Amino acid sequence: MNNLSWVRGFNATVGKLAPRVVASKMRREFMTPRELPPRDWELPLLGRAERITLRFGLSALRWGSGPTVLLLHGWEGRPTQFAALIEALVNAGYGVIALDAPAHGRSPGHEANVVLFARALLEAASELPPLQAVIGHSMGGASALLATQLGLRTKALVSISAPSRILGMLWRFARFMALPELARAHFVRLVEQYAGMPAAHLDVARYQLDLPGLVVHAEDDPIVPVSEAEIIHTAWFDSRLLRLAQGGHQRVLADPRLTEGVLELLAGVRQASAGAVA
């Protein structure tokens, strides 16, 4: 029996007898990211990056100069997973800042959640020049959407492989880990307590999204269903939906159509800004 099977069996059995204990253990598991090293193809870009430290010790990598684009990776992700997109942005004349999310990379903390991710974006934006765009992958995309509701100012936003609501993620995780019904309910309440926000509020259907954007998702994503992108797009009037037949959850970041879509969005933003000035 492998370790996951053992954990699921333990949760299913003990979770009925001691639901709060099992829920607490799974809450820590859910909020504690593993540190995964960069792949070989990420190293050249990493070697050309400038490491900077922002407010409260938040760490980030910087490339290029010009109008600022802020990037945030997903859960257990890294800035250099955006390598293809970063190269294209720098070549197009943008300055790129990519954060190490809380409890990831060199940023402080041992646990994280979507609210902490969103607050990291707010903290970074307060120290950077006006943002042309914020681009987030997976939880980074969900947190970017949330951050706009908490006061983040940016001219455009790109959501890649992101969930539309956090409660769905919590229930999927709880079911995957075989938590019995009562333990599941305790698990959700604990996550809400630590995040400091009701999970039901972390839902794009409740958001006011009044900026231009791009929603990107691969149809074969095994982690976040492509239907989540449809929900985000429906809730976001001024967004374009880019559905890719392939790309999974991670490979989508290297798809040339993603890069083209981002550059097209940014060109539209710059054109609109120039027209407003004229």
UniProtKB/TrEMBL annotation:
Domain of life of the native organism: Bacteria
Coiled-coil annotated spans: none
Gene Ontology molecular function: hydrolase activity
Keywords: Hydrolase
Record carries keyword Hydrolase: yes
Residues covered by the AB hydrolase-1 domain: 67-173
Keyword set includes Cytoplasm: no
One Pfam family in the UniProt entry: Abhydrolase_1
Protein name: Alpha/beta fold hydrolase
